[in-house]
Amino acid sequence: MSETGIAPTKPDAGAGDPTVAIAFGGGGARGLAHIHIIETLDAMGIKPVVISGSSIGAIMGAAMASGLTGKEIRDHTLSTIGKPSKAIGRIWRAARPRGVKDAMEGGLRLGQFNVERILEEFLPATVARRFEDLEIPAKILVTDYYDHAEVVCETGDLRQAISASAAIPAVFRPVMVDGRVMIDGGIFNPVPFDHLTGLADIIIGIDVVGLPSGVPGQPPSTIDMMFGASQLMMQSIIGMKRKAHPPHILLRPDVHQYRVLDFLKAEEIIAGSVGVAEQLKRDLDAAFAFFH
Fold this sequence. Notes:
Helices cover 37% and strands 14% of the residues. It is of the alpha/beta class and 292 residues long. The two termini are 26 Å apart.
């Protein structure tokens, strides 16, 4: 479904086409629907002036900001996590302990997967390593665990920031950034459109947090309950942020039926969320018409 917010502020006459900024939200495997957003912007010839992202949205946003097209991101996704046997091999190479010290510090215990290693296995080589090398400015949201606050990363080590933003609690180890313990950016800011306020004429937010998966009336599993409770809290955060800093366009791809860790269903998720592409095009056509 799509939800339009306030009408964009009309730019001064002669200012040219309206500018666009986009916030890619977190949601684990559900965030593979972001690929449709990037492909649609490519097809419409729209290059955002700035991108923000949390968790899987940080990964997708960084890829787009690095200059990858939606098609390139789709092809890379389907050639890696889209092939389960190959994906499992990559995960094992990244996750296995590297020596006795590594094994004693965590190994393969729940919540001890090293997200930095795993992302190095799966990220396209052409994703920039530093913010300063990006083609489009980006803001990556992470959560400072002990400082109880969100942190906006905009300079320095991009891949470290992406890893921290994607460090889902109970799945991945936290990431140390400048001596601070950082975790999933979606904890504090699931769809960081508020950090784009005033930076473009049209601000787009993509919410892939979704709702708890499972069958109504049936008790959820422990893991589904854990992620489901987080999703409910994140939707509450999104609702409050919309009241304070409403984006002009908010899209919610149809991904509720997939679980946060359903990455091996990449092909199915991408196929099942294709409708969001037409929704984005319609909303952007309407927003652009406002300026003409």
